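The data are quoted verbatim here:
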Amino acid sequence: MRLDAATLPAAARALVERIGRTPLVELTLAELPAGSRLFAKLESVNPGGSIKDRPVARMLLEAWQAGTFARGRRLLDSSSGNAGISYAMLGAALGVGVTIVVPGNASRERLERMRAHGAELVVTDPIEGYDFALREARRLARADPERYWHCDQYSNCHNWLAHYDGTAGEIVAQLAERGLGPPDALVAGIGTGGTLTGAGRRLHELDPALRVAAVIPETFPGIEGLKPYGEPGDIVPELLDEGLIDETCPVSADEAVAMCRRLAALGLFVGPSSGAFVHAALRVATARRPARLVTFLNDGGERYVSTGMWRRD
């Protein structure tokens, strides 16, 4: 289905037109081997403040155009926070009710942003983890299918297609503007798997030698925006193309925060998943020495102030 943007309410159209085409910034860090260059997409400039605006806009607008929300049906999904903000923001602009199941350890700033847009929040026990919120959203959808349309970002094909059609092409074009070819390595995490799958597939088509590294958080306390992966009982997102993954890079919360603080000293104020990505990218560069690496700065650091990650006692 091809969306006709002219059919959108003016507020929604204004937001959608500003999603994507984010800057590609080069990171100059001491650990990079000679000849290696590391680039990152600065996704906090999207109107919802994160990379999740891209897939959420596509998933929600495809459903909206199909008449899914007729007679007051609500959008339902689980989220650790950023997708929830995107759903709430765009839902408000479209006049669509939004219900988000979110783990209780999501930062206060993200919970308040969702509520500010009018989203209904179902907050789950943080001890139960990331996957419990996903299962609870599925339970609610089964229990009341007339009230809820479960977007299910973990299996919705428009999630990864947003990155296949949009994000990857931007990366290639922005590298070409610098006189460079496609990346030799892509470093991304697994939340839903949409970024890794969509961008990874498109970039792999352009260069079959592309290496894809998946960033894996420690199980507890975890890293907001990244889900556990690889242990018995961990839910593997249906849309994740595991065949694209050449290596996994475990990263602790402390390592992610330490990198965020380093990036802040360079003028880049980002959240913990971004710190994890850059930490992992440096390890990939050191071990593999690819010439061009690309990763993502998924959101801004402002929405994590309440977690204490910026406190220096």
The first helix runs from residue 10 to 16.
